[in-house]
């Protein structure tokens, strides 16, 4: 369980951040068929290792952990076999909505925290590019949501396509620094943050918006 936890935290940096694991606070998840295949191979290995344990000799707590862990692994492997990763959006959200929670959920108490935050802003264009590639495959294979449930979906993206950095939700952390960030470092961090938001994050949202409006919604 400990090994699997470490693996899942590294593969899901957002989940790690929320869980209080700060090792991957400067990263975004890697998205794509090759990464999903790699995760599936690991989970298959873990399922085999789990099968080597005699459940009958476990106490009640460990039997419960065994059963839940097996169920999680089997569900993840089934989802992979059916290429569920080609449908990363739901009618209520998606990766772009989760990313917009970053200013609220990321730890922002020290200069290092702000460095990590900026690194994630910088990495967002690749994150968007990877998701667009998956969604295009989904359209090609007709693995898409019904268009009727996506009415107005573009509004969840448009909110982050701004012309003024001060209108961006991602700028909030730079409008007031906590005591843990030295005053001498604040101007530089704020400037780097503004550049990253307007040169990386906002353009990535704009690219995603065009894809959703021009390609994905018509393909649903």
Structure description:
This protein has 220 residues and is mostly helical. Helix 7 packs parallel to helix 9. The mean pLDDT is 97.
- Give the DSSP E fraction (strand runs of 2 or more residues): under 5%
Helix share, percent: 55-70%
Which blocks of ≥5 consecutive residues have pLDDT under 50?
none
Quaternary state, please?
single chain
**DSSP strand tally:** 0
User: What letter string, H or E per element, gives the SSE order?
Assistant: HHHHHHHHH
Keyword list:
mainly alpha, flat, 60% helix
How is the topology of this model organized?
Blueprint: H1 2-11, H2 13-19, H3 33-51, H4 60-81, H5 95-99, H6 102-105, H7 111-140, H8 155-158, H9 186-216
Helix pairs in contact: 1-2, 3-4, 7-9
Write a short abstract of this structure.
The chain contains 9 helices and no strands. The protein has about 220 residues and is mainly alpha-helical. Helix 1 packs across helix 2 (about 15-20) and helix 7 (about 110-140) runs parallel beside helix 9 (about 185-215).
């Amino acid at each position: 369980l400990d090994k699997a936890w470490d693996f899942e935290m590294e593969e899901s940096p957002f989940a790690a951040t929320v869980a209080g694991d700060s090792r991957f606070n400067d990263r975004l998840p890697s998205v794509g068929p090759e990464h999903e295949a790699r995760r599936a191979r690991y989970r298959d290995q873990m399922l085999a290792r789990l099968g080597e344990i005699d459940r009958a000799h476990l106490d009640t707590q460990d039997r419960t952990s065994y059963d839940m862990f097996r169920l999680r692994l089997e569900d993840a492997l089934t989802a992979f076999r059916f290429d569920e990763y080609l449908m990363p959006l739901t009618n209520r959200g998606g990766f772009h909505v989760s990313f917009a929670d970053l200013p609220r959920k990321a730890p922002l108490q020290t200069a290092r925290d702000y460095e990590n935050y900026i690194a994630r802003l910088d990495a967002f264009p690749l994150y968007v590019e990877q998701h667009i590639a998956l969604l295009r495959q989904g359209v090609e294979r007709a693995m898409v949501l019904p268009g009727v449930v996506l009415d107005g979906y573009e509004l969840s993206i448009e909110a982050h396509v701004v012309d003024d950095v001060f209108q961006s939700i991602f700028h909030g952390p730079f409008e007031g620094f906590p005591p843990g960030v030295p005053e001498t470092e604040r101007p530089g961090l704020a400037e780097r943050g503004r550049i990253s938001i307007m040169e990386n994050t906002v353009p990535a949202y704009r690219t995603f918006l065009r894809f959703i409006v021009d390609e994905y919604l018509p393909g649903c």
